[in-house]
Each structure stands twice: as structure tokens, then as C-alpha cells.
Amino acid sequence: MIKSKTSERKKEHIEICLSDKIIYEKSNGFENYEFPHCAITEVDLNKIDLTTKFFNKKINLPFLISCMTGGTNEAEKINEKLAIVASDLNIPIGLGSQRQALENKNLLHTYKIVRENAKNVPLLGNIGAAQIASSNKIVDEIKYLTDLVDADVMVIHLNPLQELFQKEGEINFKGLLKNIEKLTNKINIPFIAKEVGSGISKDIAKKLLDVGIKGIDVAGSGGTSWAKVEMVRNNYFNNYFSNWGLPTSYCVRTVSKLKKNYKFVLISSGGINNGIDIAKSIALGADLSASARIILKELFENDIKGVINLINEWFDDVKKIMYLTGVKNLNELHKIKLIKKSELF
Ligand SMILES: Cc1cc2nc3c(=O)[nH]c(=O)nc-3n(C[C@H](O)[C@H](O)[C@H](O)COP(=O)(O)O)c2cc1C
After folding, report:
1. Beta 123-128 vs 93-94: how paired, if at all?
2. What is the distance in A from the centroid of ligand 1 to the CA of 287?
3. 197 CB within 6 A, ligand 1
4. Which pTM does this prediction carry?
5. Looking at residue 71, what DSSP letter applies?
6. Would the CB of 194 count as within 6 Å of ligand 1?
7. How far is the CA of 40 from the centre of ligand 1 (A)?
8. Ligand 1 contacts CB of residue 84 (under 6 A)
């Protein structure tokens, strides 16, 4: 049995995230938009194409299983099952923070198990801003971590709100951007920057793209609140900060404007729990969507088959929306202009 302070924390995170108490009170904002109905659609529902590319690899759906876990016995089982889902659907999958892989050799298999079970899909490694900012051998460490799991892409998670309310939190990110630039210059795989639920604004996205980041996962507000998760662990509650953050739809709509001047992958996540929000995300400018907590919950409740069915049901709805808006592929869905609810009445 593997036990350490960090692996205990990871175990607590999984348990707490299964409860609905830790979601944002505010929504991700997608309910404020409506699709333009196309009364003359000529789209054949059965011929709608949802395939796309994630960096260099072809994927079957514009969807990614978001970074969650690794570094505990529970995580190994979860990662194995999620990898089977990703492989079955041919979609990308993210690992949870690999910090533990730097600290404890006994835990390596809890991460490596993903590539073992998902040989061909894009695999995303993961490390936190605090580790990037504080290390003076970060290039070697990240090279080690990406090689370890055969990652196609490395994700850097930005989580100042979580660190602020975590007992063991590290709230000093000094040197972060400089070290990110070092990494993007020296390591030859794409880097994605993601939040964990408080969102990334257009200005911050621009700063990240300027230091060589090739993907932005906004991970906005409306789903899991990591302040709430840490507050449950601390038995402390503050309503203002537990709901701090920018809603996912706002982040996607504003960050996508940077596409005029930068080439990058835009991921919509944070409370994405259905196909409607996925289709709206793409219409607002995202290349793909991602979910975390709801996938974990479904895995615990209905195992691998349940998660595969859930994601397929979401994309059946995406196809229905594409039929009703008269678009036959993702490029056309990108170009749809959503209607703000306030304009309808
Ligand atoms: C159990 C659990 C563990 C997580 N661990 C990580 C992590 O290690 N690294 C990371 O970048 N994000 C992590 N996240 C955050 C998610 O990737 C995601 O950004 C966030 O939960 C918002 O998405 P959601 O509303 O779909 O849950 C975790 C989420 C969950 C539910």
C-alpha cells in the first residue's frame, strides 16, 4: 500500500469531488445563449463528421478527458479505466499532477498505466504552476515526466485559488512565466496552460501565448470549485471565495478573439456536463471541450461502459444540434453565431 501526505490528499480530493456540495453556485453561463434554428436544414444526421485533430493526432470527437489523478492506489485503478474509455472512443486523456512521480519512485506505475491502456490517443502530462515556478532544474524534470508517460503534450495547471485555501498550499508563483518560457524553448512538445475552475481571461491567455504556450484550457467557473474542495478539507467556509472565478462561456468567447493573431488550441472546460454546452463552446470559438468531475462520478457509478455511453449520448445531442442548425462538420459549427437570450424577448 502506497501512503504519503500527498497521496492521502489526492485520495481525499477524489472522495470530496464525488459529492455535489463542491460545485460553483454560479453557472458556466452557456444557458445565456440560444442556437439559431435552421428551418431549411439539408444536413443528413448520419453523415455528420465529428472527427478532428488534436495537435498532430486524429481524434474521433472534439472532447478530452480532463486531467485528474495519479499518485495513489485509487488513482491507478481510475487511470486504467479512463485510459480504456479514451482508447475506445479515440479521444485525448490528461493525467493528474505528476508531482508525485518526481518525489516517489513507487508511484510511477499509477501514471504509466494510462499509456499502457491507451496506446494511440494523445496523452497529456500534467504539472502545477507552483512546481514550475520553484524549481531550478525544471527542464530536466519535465523531460523526465514526459518521457515517463510517453506524453504528446504537457499541461501546466494554474491554481492560485486552490493553493490559497489548501492547508499545504504553495502560494508563491514568482518566476512562473520565465520558467514556462524556458520550457517551451527547450522542450519539443506543445505545452497547454489550464486553470482548474477559476478561468483564464483574454489578457492572461495572451501573456501565456507570448511565452510559447500552444494551448489554453480555460477551466472556468460553473463546475468544480477547488476552493470549496479545500474548504471541506479544512472545515472552513467562505462563500465569496468559494465562488471566485470567471465563467467558462465568458472565457471561451473572449479568449477565442486571440485566434486572429495566434495559432493555438482552445479548450472549453469547467462545468461541461452535456452536449449542448459542448456545441455552444465550439460555436463560441473552442476547438474542443473537456470534463473532469462528472466523468469521475459516472465512472464510480456505472464504470467504463457508463462513461463511454455518457460521452456518446452527449455527442448524439451535438449531432442533433448540428442537424437543427444546418451544419455538417465542426468547421461549420465554429462559424455559427449564437443568439444572446436577451435578444430573443
Ligand atoms: C478528482 C479531481 C482531481 C483533479 N486533479 C487535477 C490535477 O491533478 N491537475 C489538473 O490540472 N487538474 C486537476 N483537476 C481539475 C480538472 O482537470 C478541471 O480543470 C476542473 O475540475 C474543472 O472541470 P469540471 O468542472 O469538469 O470538474 C482535478 C479534478 C478532479 C475532479
Report:
1. parallel
2. 19
3. yes
4. 0.98
5. S
6. yes
7. 41
8. no
Q: Look at the domain 5-343 and name its fold.
A: TIM Barrel (3.20.20)
At 155 the three-state DSSP class reads: strand
Q: Which of 162, 193, 195, 188 is nearest to 177 (CA)?
A: 193
φ/ψ of 203, rounded to 5, equals: -60, -40
C-alpha cell at 79: 487511470
Question: Cα(334)–Cα(279) distance, rounded to whole angstroms?
Answer: 9
Report which of 125, 134, 164 is spatially closest to residue 245, judged by C-alpha positions: 164
Tens digit of each residue's pLDDT, the chain (345 residues): 445 677 888 899 999 999 999 999 999 999 999 999 999 999 999 999 999 999 999 999 999 999 999 998 899 999 999 999 999 999 999 999 999 999 999 999 999 999 999 999 999 999 999 999 999 999 999 999 999 999 999 999 999 999 999 998 999 999 999 999 999 999 999 999 999 999 999 999 999 999 999 999 999 999 999 999 999 999 999 999 999 999 999 999 999 999 999 999 999 999 999 999 999 999 999 999 999 999 999 999 999 999 999 999 999 999 999 999 999 999 999 999 999 999 999
Q: Does residue 158 line the site of ligand 1, with CB under 6 A?
A: no
Which residue, judged by its Cα, is nearest atom 12 of ligand 1?
Answer: 67
> Domain limits of the chain?
5-343
Residue 85: phi and psi, rounded to 5, are: -60, -50
